[in-house]
Structures are given as C-alpha cells and as structure tokens.
Amino acid sequence: QQALLVVLQRMTGLAEVPVNETVAAALRAPQEYYVEYAYREERSPPASAADQGSLQLVLAVRFAEAAIQRLVTQAGLPLWSSNRPTTVAWIAVSQNNERSVLGIDDPSPALAAVRARAAARGLPLVIPLMDLDEQLEVSAGIVWGGMVDVLELASERYAADDLLIGRVTQRDDGTWSADWELVQRGDVQHFDIDSPSAEAAGAAIVDRLSDDLVARYAVHSGDEQLLVVRIEGVGDVLDYGALLAYLGGLEFIDAVQVDTVQRNVVVVSLATRTAWERLGDLFALDGRLEPGLPALPGGPLQLTWRGDRPR
Questions:
Q1: pLDDT, tens only, 77-101
Q2: How far apart are CA 248 and CA 264, in angstroms?
Q3: Whose CA is closest to 251, among 3, 13, 83?
Q4: Which helix (H) or strand (E) holds 211?
Q5: What is the pLDDT of residues 7-37, one digit of tens each?
Q6: Which of 123, 125, 122, 128 has its CA nearest to residue 143?
Q7: Residue 237 — left, alpha, or beta (φ > 0 → left; ψ -120 to 50 → alpha)?
Q8: In Å, how far from its chain's centre is CA 205?
Q9: In 3-state terms, what secondary structure has residue 38?
Q10: Greatest CA separation found in the chain?
C-alpha cells in the first residue's frame, strides 16, 4: 500500500495523493498493480564526512506501468509524463562563517532532504559531482553571486534542461533561510524560503519546483478527443518507425492512427485527453517534435519531426 501511494505520487506529481473511492479501492488490493517485489540491502546516506552510512533493508516494488496509468485516469488524477525536464542544482551553504558548494557525496542534511524529496516527488534532479575539475571551475562565490553563464557552462556535462541556484544560510538562532533562482530556457524566477531546519529547507525547494513543473506539464484527465496532425520531416522508413514508436510511448497519447503517408509527410490521428496547447508544451520538452507552419482553418495541426537530431 505504501509503495502504491509512492508510485502514484510520482506519476501524478502531487505532494499528497487524494484517497478518493477509486484510489481507496486500489489500496485495498495493491497486488493487482505490482508485478514484482524484492528485499535488498542499501547503505543509508552518511551523517558526517567520517560516517560511512549503515546498511538497511529496503523493499523494492516494480509496478505495471499500464495498470498504474489506467488507475490514474480512472481516479481523475493528473498524469505527469515521464518526459520531464532535468534540473541541475548548484547549492552553496553558509554555516559557521564558512561557505561551500554541495556535491553529490556531501553529508549535508539539506542535501539529503533535497535528494529524498526529489525521489519521492519523481523530480529529475542532478547534484553536481564537485570533483577536482568542478572545484576549480565553480567556487562558492560563483554560486553565491549567481553567475549564470559560468554555471550553465559547468552544467553542460549533465545535459540538464534547467538550472537551480541556491544560497542557503544558517542564522544565529539556528533557523535557515534560502534564496533560490530557477533558470528555465532563459527565464529566471526568484523566490525566498525560510525554514526551521536544513532538512525543511531542502524539502521546501523540491516541493516548490515540483509544484511549478506539475502546473505546467501535468495532464488532467478529460474527455478523449481525436486530433489530426500533419508531421513533416519524415524522410525515410527509419524516421517513420522512430516517429510512431515515439508517439506510441507517450503516456498522454492513448492511440495513434496513421491516416496518410506522402513524401516527407505523415498525417496521423492522435487519441488524447490532453488539450492541444498542453500537448505543444509537452512535445517541446525534448524537441523531437517542433511546431510547424500555422494550421489552415479546418486543416490538421502542423508539426516537424526532428527525431534525435541536435536542436
């Protein structure tokens, strides 16, 4: 039951999954949704630089994706596509009159909270390695100063879509304040968060970021519609196969029907519960389908297939 709630949280992007009648019925019979479970030992995060962490027993459950998607739709919950933007987080912490940049192996409780909350919310979040090369390239002063150009250059190795810059400070009374910048395709958002502890500060930023992305990209269940789309750039059979495989693998597309195939052009009908405006945003996430020419009145929507070619 707990694992089912976790996977529903990740699939919907919701911080709390509403236990309506449909969800309650699923929780009474979770065996209908998972296909495998196993116990394994994992090492807990270290509590300090000298701590190696302790082994703990973990239950790992693998769910049937199609069954979970049906449950989400039947329960009237939003569906957050697995095609989610990846964010690299550069976080500088000021504590005891010292500033440092958190790397993936840092024992900071704020970082542990960030990673745990990101896993719970299904947020693709990258913590920099902060290896020797990055330590020479990215100092605490660069993060604290919000030098976006330097941080974007350092982030190229992670192939992330967005950039999160954090400045976290412990006050004299033990509470924490955090000043954040989120850089998304040239757009910069600023927000401040006050928290009673480092753990709360880490969880709060993940919730804020997740809520923002869910509001932009989650698909809410509605009436199914059929959208006719004209797709250019399908030059050969490899493009054709890749396009159909791509469309058929999207959670927000229920069915794909090929209407016509012409030279360099394929016309398809997409069965979806998603409005066209939201579909455009979702396609733009990975750039494999880009907006084409404006549709003629009464004509099909226009897209261009880019596939795996560089944008």
A1: 999 988 899 999 999 999 988 999 9
A2: 20
A3: 83
A4: helix 198-217
A5: 999 999 999 999 999 999 999 999 999 999 9
A6: 128
A7: alpha
A8: 14
A9: strand
A10: 69
